[in-house]
Amino acid sequence: MKKLYKFHLSFFCLFFFFSVWAASSANSQWVQMSSGISNTETCQALASTGSTMLAGMQGSGVYRSTNNGTTWLPTSLNNQSIYTFYVSGATVYAGTSNGIYTSVNGGVNWTQSYLAGQGIAAILITGGYMYAGNNVSSNGGASWNTYLPTYAIKSLAASGSTILAAASISGMWRSTNNGANWTITFSTNPNTFLESGANVYCGTTLNGLMYTSNAGVNWSTISLPMSQINSLISQGSYLIAGRDLNLGVFISPDGGAAWLERNQGFAPGGAAYSVMAVHYYNGYVFAGTFGGSVWRRSYSELLSPIGVQQTSSSTPDKFSLSQNYPNPFNPSTRINYELKITNYVTLKVFDLLGKEVAQLVNEKQSPGSYAVDFNSGEYNLPSGVYFYTLNAGEFKEIRKMILIK
User: Fold this and answer.
1) In this predicted structure, what is the pLDDT of residue 28?
2) CATH no. of 29-303
3) Could you tell me which residues are beta bridge partners of residue 356?
4) Which of 49, 175, 226, 381 could pair covalently with 376 via S-S, beta carbons 3.0-4.6 A apart?
């Protein structure tokens, strides 16, 4: 009887351990949250209102979730492409392929309200005026005037009494008289805005991340490499960017000067998605992707992935990269390394052909000893020989490891 009791207790402990591990592992990477939505649809817009998350899809309208994206339900707006959301009080505006729809009950029901027949990718309400695509109304949408009619407006922002319009390949425009007249401030390729205090950030296709502190009169480039930005948000002291060309999600802890890749779990082989929209809600960051529906990740873990641990803050006398253990391994192994001074660190895994299959570390780290757990199952890797390389300033070292399934 005692042996049976011990067996049950041991089995329970083992089950509990793996349950906790699985839960923390799920939170330590991006997880697709597409129950109720096809997992190959494109999500172009995300928003939240009250206790409801909204996902705007390409061609199939709006879906809503009241359980942090675990399950999604269709709404009455189910046959349009959704380009953007704008939330004002209890009213949600959806810019669609057929004008603007509105909802006042958390996205359950929608009404076609303005500009039927037009594709609306940007909405802004400020100072008693409503801006929608190339249109502006001073009377709540009863009538509209057109501005910049030959340009596709992708995003709108307000800086004081100045309105900024991102007009795709034609450049950045500003108006100081409620859209009656416009002047171009730079002829680049702006995609999206983020209003942050007195500053306005602009994510571009080819010209990196830019910002203005004087309502768009002058613009400065913060980070030229951070191009292909589709969506940009701020949460706490961090910027979070969704990028095109399968570049995924990046975060910045310092206002946009340095960026850290955060794509663990997105897709097989270490690849990412083109991220069309990012949104923070209830402790999670959501990503709307091209051809991959909606994904979710814990915000706290996004900032500090639990797979990277600083095991000691004592300063070692040299840089080093240890042999992974166990080796050979299946499916997980641990990699240890030491940093002598503060450096920007990358730890990457490559296959025999030299193709990068995983990026385990990509951030600035202080002196000390570190451990990284590499789970090959997260990247759907086959058996074979792999190489991992540590780069920290002028230090670079490569080691070999073997995955056997």
Assistant:
1) 59
2) 2.130.10.10
3) 350
4) 381
